[in-house]
Amino acid sequence: MAVDYDAPRVTPEDEPNVAIEELKADKPGRREAAPDVDETDLADSFELPGADLSHEELQVQVVPVQADEFTCMSCFLVHHRSQLAREKDGKKYCRECES
After folding, report:
1. 30-52, pLDDT tens digit by residue?
2. Are residues 79 and 94 in contact, defined by beta-carbon separation less than 8 angstroms?
3. Residue 91 in contact with residue 72, Cβ under 8 Å?
4. Beta-strand (E) ranges in 54-98?
5. Domain spans of the chain?
6. Quick one: which H or E segment has residue 39?
7. Which residues does the annotated region (Disordered) include (predicted)?
8. Which one of 27, 44, 62, 76 has the fewest beta carbons within 10 angstroms of its own beta carbon?
9. pTM of whole model > 0.70?
10. Nearest-CA neighbor of 86 among 68, 70, 67, 66?
């Protein structure tokens, strides 16, 4: 909740006395809270145009790690050897993870 630090402070003596019955009274024009809607049910109703890919298969060619690359043992990404920051006990770490 945002706080306006520039607003004048109100002490308990300065606060207006409002009867609890007035606060509890149902005021006209007051809106009721909307019921929670499950997001997964809502997402199922969306249909994107031309997005029927149910019969498609992805074909990705996996290339093994090259001789000038290494796998970082912290982020598990494959980097070029120029990104090698440290090697300890045969484990290699990239510059991004070491910074």
Report:
1. 666 666 767 777 777 777 777 77
2. yes
3. no
4. 69-71, 78-80, 84-88, 91-94
5. 62-98
6. helix 39-44
7. 1-40
8. 62
9. no
10. 70
